[in-house]
Design a protein that fits this description.
- This protein is an alpha/beta fold.
- Among the domains are: about 130 residues, Ribonuclease Inhibitor (Leucine-rich repeat, LRR (right-handed beta-alpha superhelix), Alpha-Beta Horseshoe), CATH 3.80.10.10; about 180 residues, Jelly Rolls (Sandwich).
- It is about 10% helix and about 25% strand.
- It contains seven helices and 27 strands.
- A 13-stranded mixed sheet has the order 9-10-11-12-13-14-16-18-19-25-22-27-20. Strands 1-2-3-4-5-6-7-8 form an eight-stranded parallel sheet, with no helix packed on it. The protein has a four-stranded antiparallel sheet with strand order 21-26-23-24.
- The longest helix is centred in the C-terminal third of the chain and has 31 residues.
- It starts with 5 loop residues before the first strand and ends with a helix.
- It holds the Pfam family LRR_14.
- Keywords: Leucine-rich repeat, Repeat.
Length: about 575
C-alpha cells in the first residue's frame, strides 16, 4: 500500500470542518503547510516519522503535539511569523533537531532550558520575537544565532565562549544592557553589529575576527560612553561606526597599528579630542567627525598615510587643522564656525606626488565653506596648497590618459577634476591672470600649447549670497583666421543650508577649479588637433552664477582668474614645497 511521505498545502483558505476531519498519515516525513489554521496537529497523527515541518504564519498557539506524538526524528522546524505562538513546541525528545526558525513569533516569551542539550542544533533564528527576554545556555554545536529585534537583556556566557558560532546577530536588541564579561572565543565569519542596541552601556571584549562594528543609525547606543582599550585587539576590524552615539565621549588610545581598519565614523558623538596615537590607524581611508565636539586634530593624523576622505561638517568647536596626509583627496569642513588656523600640507602633497592610483576616477575636493573665522594665513595656506594639488592631479591625469591610449581604451569623457573652496575675497597669488568682474580675456603666446600643457586652472570670488545657485563657465577660443569655438562647463551646484533663511554664504567665497578634458571638446572631430591649437590666439572665459529658488538673492562674481599649467613647472613647485 502506498504511503504518503510529502505533503505541501498551498496558501488557500480551507473550511475549518475539513481540517478537523482530515487525518494525516503517520508515514508523513515532510509537512509544509502555510497558515495552518489550528492550534495543534490532529490528535490521531503520530509525528514520529516527521523529519521536516514548516508552518509559516500558522495559528498555533501553544503545544503543537502531545507527549505521545513527539517527533523524535525531526531535523527541521519552521514556524516563522506564527504570531500566536506563546511557547516552543516540546522538542526535548527531538534530539536530531538541526534547524529551528521561529522569527517573527512575537508572542513567544521564553526558550526552554533543555535547548542546551540539543546537541545537533546548528541553526536558531529568533529575529523579531519581541517578547523574548531571556535566553538559556546554548548547545555546543550551534553555528547560527539570530537574536535581532528581541527583548533580551543579557547574553548567556556560553554564547560568548562558543567557538563554533560563525554568525551572531544582536542588532536592534533595544533592552540589551551589557555583553558577557568572560573571554570571547567567537570566530564570526562576517560583520558584528551593535546597531540599535540603545541600552548598551558597557562591554569588555568582542569577537577577535570582527570585521565591522556598527553602532550607528536611529535609536542607537545612546548609553555608550567609551570603548574598551582591547578593541584594538580586533586585528581584522575594517569598519568602526559610532555615528549617533550621542553620549560617547572617550575614544581610547590606539595601542597598536591597525592595518585593516579603513572606516571610522564618530559623527554625532561628543568626542572632544582624538588621541595622538591616531597615526596608528595606518590603513584608515575614511574618517567622519561631523557634528562632533572635536576641538583639534592631532598632528599625527598625517601618519595615516592612506586617508583619502575626511568629513568635518558642522564641527562647531574645531579651531585648527594640522598638516594633512598626502593622499587626502576629499575634505569637507563645512560650517566649522570656530576654525581659525589651517596648516599648509604642501610638503605631504609633494611627498605623495607619485602615489596616485590611476585605475579609478581621479578627483579632489577640499571644501572650507561657511568657515568665517579662517585667518589670513589659513586662507593663504588653503589656496597655496591648491596649486600643488592641481599640478599633482593634472600630472597624474596626463599619465593616466597616456596609459589608456596605449591600452586603446581612452574615453575623452572620463573627467578628472580638482575643486577648492573657502571664505575669502582674493584670487590666489599664483594665478598669472586676474580680472575684476565675471570674465577674463587673455592672449595666448605662439607656443602656448605644447606636449606638457596640462590645462587651465580657474578661480573666482563669489559674493555672499542666499538661495540655491549653479556656477558655470563658458570658454571662447578664437583663432587667427577668425574662427570662434565655445565650450560650456558646469562647475558646481550649491544648496542653501537653511531652508527657512535660504542662507548660502556667511561671507564672500573663493573657488578654484581644474578640469582635464576642456580641450578635447574644442578639437572634437578635427583631423589635426595640434595644428588647430597653433591657430588659437585668444581665450575668453565668462563665469555665470545662476540662482534657483529665490528670485531676489544677491549673487554675482566679483573677481576671476585663469592660469595656464605646464608639466615643466611641476618640478619647481615640488622643490618650493620641500
Amino acid at each position: 500500500m502506498y504511503q504518503l511521505r510529502y505533503l505541501y498545502v498551498k496558501p488557500v483558505i480551507y473550511p475549518i470542518p475539513l481540517i478537523v476531519y482530515l487525518d494525516l498519515p503517520n508515514s508523513l516525513r515532510y509537512l509544509n503547510w502555510y497558515a495552518y489554521p489550528l492550534k495543534s496537529l490532529p490528535s490521531k497523527f503520530s509525528a514520529q516519522n516527521l523529519v521536516f515541518l514548516q508552518m509559516p504564519c500558522s495559528k498555533v498557539g501553544g503545544q503543537l503535539w502531545n507527549e505521545d506524538q513527539s517527533p523524535v526524528n525531526l531535523k527541521r522546524i519552521s514556524l516563522f511569523w506564527s504570531k500566536r505562538l506563546t511557547e516552543v513546541p516540546n522538542l526535548s525528545r527531538s534530539l536530531n533537531i538541526e534547524h529551528i526558525d521561529l522569527r517573527g513569533c512575537e508572542s513567544l516569551v521564553e526558550i526552554p532550558s533543555y535547548f542546551q542539550h540539543l546537541g545537533k542544533l546548528t541553526y536558531l533564528k529568533l529575529m523579531g520575537c519581541t517578547d523574548l527576554k531571556n535566553l538559556p545556555e546554548m548547545p555546543c554545536n550551534l553555528e547560527f544565532l539570530d537574536l535581532s529585534e528581541t527583548a533580551i537583556e543579557e547574553l548567556p556566557s556560553s554564547v560568548w565562549s562558543h567557538e563554533k558560532i560563525s554568525h551572531l546577530d544582536i542588532t536592534d536588541c533595544r533592552h540589551l544592557k551589557s555583553l558577557p564579561s568572560n573571554t570571547c572565543k567567537l570566530k564570526l565569519s562576517g560583520s558584528f553589529s551593535l546597531k540599535g542596541c540603545k541600552s548598551l552601556c558597557e562591554f569588555w571584549e568582542l569577537p577577535r575576527n570582527t570585521t565591522a562594528l556598527d553602532f550607528s543609525k536611529l535609536l542607537t547606543c545612546k548609553s555608550l560612553v567609551s570603548l574598551p582599550t582591547n578593541v584594538w585587539k580586533l586585528k581584522y576590524l575594517e569598519s568602526l561606526d559610532l555615528s549617533g552615539c550621542s553620549n560617547f565621549q572617550h575614544f581610547p588610545e590606539i595601542s597598536e597599528a591597525m592595518e585593516h581598519l579603513e572606516f571610522l565614523n564618530l559623527s554625532g558623538t561628543v568626542v572632544k579630542e582624538l588621541p595622538p596615537s591616531i597615526g596608528n590607524l595606518v590603513g584608515l581611508r575614511k574618517l567622519d567627525l561631523s557634528w562632533t565636539e572635536i576641538k583639534n586634530i592631532p598632528a599625527s593624523i598625517k601618519q595615516a598615510a592612506q586617508l583619502s576622505h575626511m568629513r568635518l561638517i558642522n564641527c562647531k568647536s574645531l579651531e585648527s587643522l594640522p598638516e594633512l596626509p598626502p593622499l587626502l583627496k576629499c575634505l569637507e569642513a563645512h560650517a566649522c564656525t570656530s576654525l581659525k588656523t589651517v596648516s599648509s600640507s604642501s610638503t605631504t602633497i609633494t611627498q605623495g606626488w607619485g602615489e596616485y592610483i590611476f585605475f579609478q576616477r581621479l578627483y579632489e575636493k577640499h571644501i572650507f565653506s561657511d568657515c568665517p573665522k579662517l585667518d589670513e594665513n589659513a586662507r593663504s595656506n588653503i589656496m597655496g596648497d591648491a596649486q600643488p594639488r592641481i599640478m599633482r592631479m593634472a600630472t597624474a591625469s596626463s599619465k593616466f590618459k597616456e596609459y589608456k591610449i596605449k591600452k586603446a581604451s581612452y574615453n575623452s569623457n572620463e573627467e578628472s577634476f580638482v575643486g577648492i573652496r573657502c571664505c575669502g575675497n582674493e584670487i590666489p597669488k599664483w594665478f598669472s591672470h586676474k580680472s575684476e568682474g565675471c570674465s577674463i580675456k587673455i592672449g595666448l603666446p605662439r607656443d602656448w600649447f605644447s606636449t606638457d600643457f596640462l590645462g587651465f586652472a580657474l578661480s573666482l570670488v563669489v559674493v555672499a549670497a542666499t538661495g540655491h545657485m549653479k556656477i558655470g563657465c563658458k570658454y571662447n577660443f578664437k583663432t587667427s583666421n577668425g574662427e570662434s569655438h565655445e565650450v560650456k562647463r558646469h562647475l558646481c551646484s550649491l544648496r542653501a543650508k537653511n531652508v527657512l533663511t535660504s542662507q548660502l554664504f556667511s561671507c564672500d567665497e573663493v573657488f578654484v577649479w581644474w578640469h582635464n578634458n576642456v580641450l578635447e571638446e574644442v578639437v572634437e572631430g578635427a583631423q589635426s588637433p595640434t595644428a588647430f591649437y597653433k591657430l588659437v590666439t585668444e581665450v575668453n572665459v565668462r563665469f555665470t552664477v545662476r540662482g534657483y529658488g529665490s528670485s531676489n538673492s544677491r549673487r554675482g562674481v566679483e573677481k576671476c582668474g585663469i592660469c595656464l599649467l605646464y608639466g615643466k613647472d611641476a618640478e619647481m613647485i615640488k622643490q618650493r614645497a620641500l
